[in-house]
Design brief:
This protein has helices at about 1-10, 100-110, 130-140, 205-210, 220-225, 255-270, 285-300, 315-329; strands at about 15, 25-30, 35-40, 45-55, 60-65, 70-75, 80, 90, 95-100, 115-120, 145-150, 150-155, 160-165, 165-170, 175-185, 190-200, 215, 235-240, 245, 275-280, 305-310, 315. It starts with a helix and ends with a helix. Helix content is about 20%, strand content about 35%. It is α+β, with helices and mostly antiparallel strands. Strands 1, 12, 13, 14, 15, 16, 20, 21 and 22 form a nine-stranded mixed beta sheet that branches. The protein has a five-stranded mixed beta sheet with strand order 3-4-10-5-6, covered by helices on one side.
Length: about 325
């Protein structure tokens, strides 16, 4: 397993320091089940989701309840089978779940580490196209603080991926995930947008409420691929030349780039950790993020896995309990 190899590499790393408040130290799960229901953006199918409390160190696991066996799918970058217009996870038995990114971002922001997500078909509902519906329910729900400490991935050295005009880099940041995202569209409405979000210090309301978007001229092309069967103005921002077709307009001035930041946060949680680093992404998306995560996680010298303790000292995971964590990674 990859994480077993990583833990061996980390064995000689000295204590590392990060800042963390008490409520960021320990893993969290739900205190009770939570249910959602809605249409899948691409499949057009109505799906029901139930979020269940989970044991510490389990992480995030999807369970296809419409399948009788081999139905567990770990939310991990290595299980990404497609990143075309959404993130799709697939286990070794070919059980899939798609469009996971908004729910993953919600779990990141809502501070949830361990959860089993039961779903009765292949796609997470799109809801309103953002994380708002998921988050509005979760923020009213009490969380259970567990005894195990949270694991963080601390970036030590710069890692870069360039693919034509697309580029993504990550550099050290001892305290948080910071995302600087830049869009460059020829469309007048979207145009050039950039925003920088600090996930520890900034108000994340506009990121949470920012919806997925597309150009009107691309809709038919997307449908020819068998996608967007459930898409509508109720769950996506549609831009036609110089205007937004949604009657309510945009929710914030940076909605397009803010949604890209939301997607990136959800996709980054597929690393299995909350990442401490500063990301800059130009013209990115699900595919670039997944390729980047695979490159990052292979480059063991560029990061270390750490835990926080009460005096704000973080230690290498390998120094604390390598066998236990390796078994649950």
């Amino acid at each position: 397993m990859f994480f077993l190899e990583t833990l061996v590499v980390l064995a000689d790393i000295p204590q590392l320091y990060i800042t963390a408040s008490m409520n960021k130290i320990y893993q969290k799960t739900l205190t009770k089940p939570i249910t959602f229901e809605g249409i899948g953006l691409h499949s057009g199918k109505i799906s029901k989701i139930k979020l269940l409390p989970a044991d510490e160190n389990q992480g995030i696991v999807f369970k296809r309840t419409d399948l009788k066996q081999n139905n567990l799918i770990k939310a991990n970058f290595e299980n990404v089978s497609s990143a075309k217009l959404c993130t799709t996870l697939q286990n070794k038995f070919n059980a899939k779940v798609s469009t996971v990114e908004h729910l993953m971002a919600t779990l990141y922001i809502a501070d949830i580490d361990n959860v089993t997500i039961e779903i009765d078909n292949e796609e997470v509902p799109i809801m309103d196209g953002s994380a708002k519906n998921f988050f509005d329910i979760l923020k009213e729900t009490n969380l259970s603080t567990q005894s195990a400490r949270r694991k963080y991935l601390k970036i030590l050295d710069k890692v870069e991926l360039i693919d034509g005009v697309r580029k993504i880099t990550i550099e050290p940041n001892d305290e948080t995930l910071e995302v600087d995202f830049r869009l460059n569209y020829e469309n007048k409405v979207i145009g050039k947008q950039n925003n920088c979000i600090n996930f520890h210090n900034d108000d994340l309301k506009e990121v949470i409420e920012s919806r997925t978007f597309c150009l009107y001229e691309d809709i038919e092309k997307i449908k020819e691929l068998g996608l967007a069967k459930g898409g509508s103005l109720d769950n996506a921002v549609v831009v036609d030349k110089d205007k937004v077709l949604n009657s309510e307009g945009l929710r914030n001035n940076n909605e397009f780039v803010n949604h890209k930041i939301l997607d990136l946060a959800g996709d980054f949680l597929l690393s299995g950790y909350r990442i401490l680093g500063k990301v800059r992404c130009d013209q990115g998306g699900h595919e670039l993020t997944n390729i980047f995560l695979r490159k990052l996680m292979k480059n063991n010298s560029s990061f270390t896995a750490v835990e926080t303790v009460e005096d704000n000292v973080s230690k290498s995971i390998a120094q604390i309990s390598s066998l236990k964590i390796a078994a649950n990674a």
